[in-house]
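Entry: RNase H type-1 domain-containing protein
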Amino acid sequence: MGATAAVIRDRHGNFIAASCSFIQFASEASTVEASTVEAMAMKRALTLPADVGFKNIIAESDTTDVISACTSSMWWKEGAPIFADCMDLIAFIGNVKFCHCLREANVAADEIAKYSYENKFSCI
């Protein structure tokens, strides 16, 4: 099992929206390469601003492999279909800049994901 979370903030860091998704069946989340869960997290993180209609975003992840996959065409076997979906979302949004952030800088998303996991809960 696993969970993902996404938080949208404006350019000043003010909260706009968040989402969380409980994943009942997931591959290992602690592999050296990006796992399916990490790929799903980025896909769901891109889905939220696409649904809201944002056309210019900065997407952050604490997983460098995910950032690399979203900025190149090197995808992993198990995550390849999910990263293909990410590419479609990137094209739909228009302008997406990817940045790596430390896990400590991503506390809000981590707490939301933890809540989603513990309560087997998904929402926007």
